[in-house]
Write a structure and sequence with these properties.
This protein is an all-alpha fold. 74% of the residues lie in helices and 0% in strands. Helix 2 packs across helix 3.
Length: 126
């Protein structure tokens, strides 16, 4: 999950201008619409792959089904969400990465992962 957010944080600033331009042009330009849609169609599958791995490792809490979890991951790492937080609110890339990762980990990682059971005392602590 952390790697997925870091990848998004690295590419969003680089692709922002192109993606925003394609978004504006897509109602009037078929090529722009196709390029924008191709980019958008790939993200949900990548988000689902991240969530499926969490589920396979037993880390996805029972209150989340993989589809809904992937949809939230997709939304929280979207260009529009990044634009709102980085450009409108003024979060740095590091803040966006740290806060988005923390929110997603809090939502998706099973309680046992977030709050592991304390270790038994060592012999010297008994």
């Amino acid at each position: 999950m952390r790697a997925a957010v870091r990848v998004q944080a690295a590419i969003k600033p680089k692709l922002h201008g192109v993606a925003a331009s394609l978004d504006l042009l897509r109602p009037v330009d078929d090529g722009a619409a196709a390029a924008f849609q191709e980019r958008e169609d790939a993200r949900p599958a990548r988000c689902r792959a991240v969530i499926d791995r969490l589920a396979a490792e037993g880390c996805l809490p029972p209150e989340w089904n993989p589809r809904a979890a992937a949809e939230l991951l997709w939304s929280m790492t979207s260009l529009r969400t990044w634009e709102d937080l980085a450009h409108r609110v003024g979060w740095s890339d590091a803040e966006w990465t740290r806060r988005t990762t923390a929110a997603l980990e809090a939502a998706f990682l099973a309680h046992e992962i977030r709050h592991p059971a304390p270790l038994p005392p060592s012999r010297t602590e008994r």
